[in-house]
């Protein structure tokens, strides 16, 4: 018995080490750049980092990223001036685009169509509307020089706060323990493909079982509807509060949203208050090809093409593309 | 609890350690512990159906005693019928009730009657019912045929019925093999345990990498067969052949390996059926425990092949129809069984049904000759064709599938429904077939290499394969659980 246990442990350790090596050789796991909080308390990536982002098993999606001097994933540096025409795309991981080669991003696609325009992509995974407006507000000297700003917004996720506060949970990912764990590419790969989900779920179940005995309240459809309306109201108030606090230039700022998942009340509000927005719902619905990646809900190349084209059309429609062209 | 779930990977080491370190002093104590563990294993799926296992256990335990104690043949027969009727009754109610009712309604409808089918019930099929009822019945039958003396130890008998490694999907054991091991003292053997662990690893590979990874392709092709041409449909049913083999033989390997950890040797259930040279050999290599069961308890009592050719043919037809029906309450399985009978009868009449009994392909050679390759391809094609019935949800769909093959007889490239590269699966299956061919002489030793380094490399490749093909979006339950 002793021999069996000892040998099993030795074999397990040796196999794990070999698998770690194989994971590295075949580059199955993603690199994770380091994040930090700058002097304005804006969370971003440490400047000048390079690496590869991998999703799915067997490297279903493999792309390179490059963090520029401003701390965002882009092939170009952000140097806005009054002389050039610049567009800023501000948003979360969809704009950040780790799932695409940095030289084939939405911004790059726009620039290919409109060569005299420079597109700055201020994307960062997890940025909500508070993060976005706080960034614009903190770097107002830069953003004032930018001709037009497009902000990606998902109503159900991005309006849960009415003011900006540092998200400690995200920064905790930079804790020494997490950093050490991330050094194991095997662990990162296993997490990425979902092998670690069952043990995590088990731990969560045990935790919640030990924590409370309270049963989940059964919500009837009427209460659910009321709750939904309450949430929508709250999110709308948050939106109003945020634009009041950090400023929102209706002439230069445009939202990018999907009306299929945005409540009509918010769309009406935007229309009523003359806040312009680009809606990609119909373009996505009318395309028969997949718009997202396998194993990942982010836009694939086709999805990004659609978004880029919509932005190009929009810029043309408001005359931005004519400037200096 | 599934063999490929996290709960099993917590459950197994825990039970293993307690079994050998805490309960090993007394055999009865060990058996009692295994019994409790088995009930926990089953009860975690649905504890209510534990009562069915218990009922089947109690009935056959006492029936066995009564048959043994009775001198008169009539009494012995009566007790045997009680066991058979009880177990078949359980199966009939839980597995076949709705099928009989709806078939009756369909039959009446043919004659112009419309007896609204209000008698069908919402019945959940208890997992493993087809397996454990056959196992308990074999006990009573063996006592009836005086091949076995009944045990007086109820705990041991209950452990025999519910032994968790083979409770839900076999191998269907006979008491002469399993019960005798349960009633004897087990001794911890290092070699047996390592053999068990290797089988578990190989079984997991077959399940996770082979069966589960191709399941979405098979599901997609069978669901949308009307949209595809012949090449895709042939691909779908061929892949299903590998899926069902990987799934069920993988399960059996894990079961046999797990039993080995507890000092128990279960019978082999699969012996590389892919390399069968005719359909008779295929049935000597596929789901062996079920074929053996039918041979012992149905075919031989009916006269087997010692009667006239015509009666033997009748017996073969009966066996295959029952075997098909055993798999599920659907006409598709009966059609599948009938098709196999049609394939088997010519082999039987030509006297070629036993010629490959004790040999494997390329017995003393590295490579098979051209005749063997042709035989293997033909057998594989025929068996694969039969799987159209096995996999289709209805007879109409099965014939629709076949019709689509010949009405749309063309080639088209197929794209994975989830967007994965198809080439990965072709390479994987190619390597799998080659490896299975390499180990074809011994189904119990998947890693039989003299060099430790090669063996270690194989372990790494197997685990790495699982990491590469693991998909958390796939339903990981076993196909044979539905039977």
Question: Could you characterize the architecture of this molecule?
Answer:
The complex is a heterodimer of chains A (325) and B (483). Chain A has 14 helices and 9 strands. With 325 residues, chain A is of the alpha/beta class. Chain A has one domain: 3-Layer(aba) Sandwich (Rossmann fold). Chain A has a 5-stranded parallel sheet. Chain A has a two-stranded antiparallel sheet with strand order 1-2. In chain A, strand 1 and strand 2 form a beta hairpin. Chain B is mainly alpha-helical. Chain B has helices at residues 6-22, 27-46, 50-69, 73-110, 129-144, 154-162, 164-167, 175-183, 190-223, 230-261, 279-285, 288-299, 309-327, 331-349, 370-391, 395-407, 422-438, 452-469. Classes of the chains: A alpha/beta (325), B mainly alpha (483). The A-B interface holds A 1, 3-4, 7-8, 11, 14-15, 18-19, 22-23, 28, 57-58, 60, 189-190, 193-195, 197-199, 202, 290, 294 and B 5-6, 20-21, 188, 190, 193-194, 197, 418-421, 424, 456, 459-460, 463-464, 467-473.
CA-based shape of chain B: globular
Contiguous runs where pLDDT drops below 50 for at least 5 residues of chain B: none
Order of helices and strands of chain A: HEEEEEHHEHHEHHHHHHEHEHH
| CATH structural architecture of chain A | 3-Layer(aba) Sandwich
How many domains of chain A, as an integer? 1
Q: Biggest chain pair contact, residues each? A: A-B, 27 and 26 residues
Q: List the uncertain runs of chain A.
A: none
Q: How many strands, what sense, and barrel or not for the largest sheet of chain A?
A: 5 strands, parallel
The CATH superfamily title of chain A = SGNH hydrolase
**Proportion of residues in extended strands of chain A:** 5-15%
CATH topology of chain A: Rossmann fold
Distance between the termini of chain B: 16 Å
Q: What is the strand tally of chain A?
A: 9
Q: What oligomeric assembly is this protein in? A: heterodimer
Largest β sheet strand count, sense and barrel closure of chain B: none
**Widest sheet, order of strands of chain A:** 6-5-7-8-9
Q: How much is the average pLDDT of chain A?
A: 89
The helix content of chain B is 55-70%
């Amino acid at each position: 018995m002793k021999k069996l246990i000892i040998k099993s442990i030795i074999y397990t350790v040796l196999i794990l080490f070999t698998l770690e090596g194989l994971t590295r050789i075949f580059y199955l796991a993603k690199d994770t750049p380091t994040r930090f909080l700058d002097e304005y308390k804006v969370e971003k990536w440490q400047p000048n980092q390079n690496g590869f982002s991998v999703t799915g098993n067997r490297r279903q999606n493999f792309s390179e990223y490059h963090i520029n001097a401003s701390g965002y994933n882009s092939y170009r540096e952000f140097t806005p001036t009054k002389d050039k025409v610049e567009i800023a795309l501000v948003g979360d991981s969809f704009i950040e685009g780790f799932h695409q080669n940095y030289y084939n991003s939405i911004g790059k696609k726009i620039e290919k169509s409109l060569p005299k325009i420079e597109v700055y992509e201020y994307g960062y995974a997890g940025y909500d509307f508070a993060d976005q407006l706080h960034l614009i507000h903190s770097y107002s000297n830069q953003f004032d020089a930018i001709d037009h700003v497009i902000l990606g917004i998902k109503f159900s996720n991005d309006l849960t706060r009415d003011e900006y506060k540092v998200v400690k949970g995200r920064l905790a990912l930079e804790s020494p323990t997490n950093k050490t764990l991330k050094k194991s590419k095997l662990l990162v790969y296993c997490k990425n493909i979902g092998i670690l989900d069952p043990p995590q779920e088990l731990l969560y179940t045990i935790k919640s079982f030990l924590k409370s005995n309270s049963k989940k309240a059964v919500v009837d459809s009427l209460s659910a509807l009321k709750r939904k309306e309450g949430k929508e109201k709250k999110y709308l108030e948050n939106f109003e509060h945020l634009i009041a606090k950090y400023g929102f230039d209706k002439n230069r700022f445009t939202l990018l949203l999907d009306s299929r998942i945005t409540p009509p009340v918010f769309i009406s509000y935007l229309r009523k208050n003359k806040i312009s927005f680009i809606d990609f719902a119909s373009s996505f619905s009318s395309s028969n090809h997949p718009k997202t990646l396998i194993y990942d809900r982010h836009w694939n190349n086709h999805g990004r093409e659609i978004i880029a084209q919509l932005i190009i059309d929009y810029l043309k429609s408001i005359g931005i593309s004519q400037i200096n062209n | 609890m599934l063999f490929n779930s996290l709960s099993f990977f917590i459950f197994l080491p825990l039970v293993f350690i307690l079994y050998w370190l805490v309960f090993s002093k007394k055999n009865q104590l060990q058996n009692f512990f295994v019994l409790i563990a088995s009930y926990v294993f089953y009860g975690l799926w649905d504890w209510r159906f534990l009562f069915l296992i218990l009922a089947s256990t109690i009935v056959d335990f006492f029936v066995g005693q009564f048959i043994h104690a009775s001198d008169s043949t009539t009494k012995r027969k009566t007790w045997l019928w009680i066991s058979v009727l009880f177990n078949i009754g359980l199966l009939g109610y839980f597995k076949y009730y709705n099928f009989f009712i709806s078939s009756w309604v369909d039959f009446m409808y043919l004659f112009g009657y419309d007896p609204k089918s209000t008698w069908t019930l919402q019945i959940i099929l208890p997992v493993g019912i087809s397996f454990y009822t056959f196992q308990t019945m074999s006990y009573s039958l063996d006592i009836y045929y005086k091949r076995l003396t009944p045990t007086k130890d109820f705990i041991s008998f209950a452990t025999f019925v519910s032994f968790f490694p083979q409770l839900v999907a076999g191998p269907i054991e006979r008491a002469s093999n399993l019960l005798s091991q349960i009633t004897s003292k087990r001794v911890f053997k290092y070699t047996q345990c390592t053999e068990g662990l290797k089988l578990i690893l190989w079984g997991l590979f077959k399940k996770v990498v082979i069966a589960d990874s191709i399941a979405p392709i098979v599901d997609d092709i069978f669901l949308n067969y009307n949209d595809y041409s012949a090449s895709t449909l042939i691909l779908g049913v061929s892949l299903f052949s590998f899926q069902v083999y990987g799934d069920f033989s993988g399960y059996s390997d894990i079961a046999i390996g797990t039993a080995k950890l507890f000092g128990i040797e279960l019978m082999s259930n699969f012996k590389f059926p892919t390399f069968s040279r005719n359909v008779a050999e295929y049935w000597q290599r596929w789901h062996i425990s079920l074929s053996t069961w039918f041979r012992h308890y149905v075919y031989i009592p009916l006269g087997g092949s010692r009667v006239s050719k015509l009666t033997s043919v009748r017996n073969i037809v009966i066996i295959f129809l029952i075997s098909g029906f055993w798999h599920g309450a659907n006409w598709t399985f009966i059609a599948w069984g009938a098709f196999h009978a049609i394939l088997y009868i010519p082999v039987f009449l030509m006297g070629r049904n036993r010629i490959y009994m004790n040999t494997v392909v390329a017995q003393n050679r590295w490579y098979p000759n051209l005749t063997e390759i042709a035989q293997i391809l033909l057998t594989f094609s025929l068996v694969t064709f039969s799987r159209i019935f096995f996999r289709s949800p209805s007879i109409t769909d099965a014939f629709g599938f076949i019709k689509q093959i010949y009405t749309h007889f063309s080639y088209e490239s197929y794209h994975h429904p989830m967007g994965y590269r198809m080439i990965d699966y072709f390479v994987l299956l190619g390597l799998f077939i080659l490896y299975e061919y390499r180990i074809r002489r011994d189904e119990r030793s998947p890693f039989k290499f003299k060099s430790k380094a090669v063996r270690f490399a194989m372990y790494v490749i197997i685990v790495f394969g699982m990491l590469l093909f693991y998909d958390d979006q796939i339903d990981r339950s076993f196909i044979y659980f539905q039977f």
